[in-house]
Amino acid sequence: MTNADLEKLVDTSDEWIVSRTGIKERRVAPDGMAVSDMSVIACERALEAAGMHSHEIDLVILGTVTPDFKLPSTACVIQEKMDLPNATAFDVVSACTGFINGLSVASALIETGAYKNALVIGSEKLSSVLNYKDRNTCILFGDGAGAAVLSASEDGSGIIGTYLKSDGKLRDLLWIKDGGAVSPVNAGYAFEGDDKINMSGGDIFKVAVRQMCNAAVEVIEKAGLTSDDIALVIPHQANIRIIGAISKRLKISMDKVFVNIEKYGNTSAASVPIALDEAYRAGRIKKGDHVLMVAFGGGLIWGSALVKW
Ligand code: COA
Known about the structure:
Elements (H helix, E strand, L loop, with lengths): L2 H5 L6 H8 L13 H16 L8 E5 L10 H9 L5 E5 L5 H14 L5 E8 L10 H4 L5 E8 L6 E9 L7 E2 L22 E2 L1 H22 L9 E4 L4 H11 L10 H4 L6 H11 L8 E8 L3 E8 L1
Parallel strand pairs: 1-2, 1-3, 8-9
Antiparallel strand pairs: 3-4, 5-10, 6-7, 9-10
Helix pairs in contact: 3-4, 7-8
């Protein structure tokens, strides 16, 4: 869906969207394609890249806020579709930091020795929770999926630090109010857009810049490194101006920051793994590089993960 397509739905313009967000297009999954279906494609490509058979996976963690069903977890649906008989599977509901939270949990569980090979997925069908009459939100978000395989390593490579934080006091800055147990959407529900994403963009912008920088600094310093040691930053793709502000504050130049927001918009939990995959396949990550992932989302919630590749 291009900006020109959105001009036909709401009072907006390509010029406004590009200059305020950096987004030119976003993907919209067709009817009948659910988060599990997009995840399967990402998982198959991740397993192929890792040279691994599905039966070797013993842990599946999916970050999503747009699950196939309320019950069971979509991770269990993926388990069945992917033929992962030796795994335990569950979802994390951490909005745009879903992949980072998933990485953090998978890495900690692998460190205990209880699990060996994890599939960590970020996947969203945000088009199913967008109000295409609300220009504040419908221009920002898109659908997509990304996945990574994590395995135990002994050579010092891997996830060398993670940082997770949230502030529930700010939960109504970005939320879907209706449709849960507190405010069910039953027959006769009068649509007012409260069962779709509602957002206070300006308030989020400021917190996003401050807390993504904090999350980055926390994980870099804890590893005994500085910004100069970071070869590549994979930030959550929410707004090119947020990404630019982070680059400036962290003193990491934009040529070390991966950006693909123009093609996909904000894909929530899928944003970081899609960017990681594109960066890797484009040859932007070499053995030994320190790669910093940092994200921010509804909760409000934020977090980072530092990887020695
Ligand atoms: N097209 C045209 N005009 C729009 C518009 C659109 N799609 N959306 C909002 N506007 C209008 C507003 O109504 C406002 O009009 P007003 O001045 O008459 O009230 C004007 O543009 C300026 O809005 P403002 O909110 O100041 O713009 P902004 O520069 O802050 O950009 C966002 C808006 C949403 C792009 C920006 O705040 C943002 O990206 N915030 C973070 C959101 C985010 O990342 N959320 C997900 C977190 S994971």
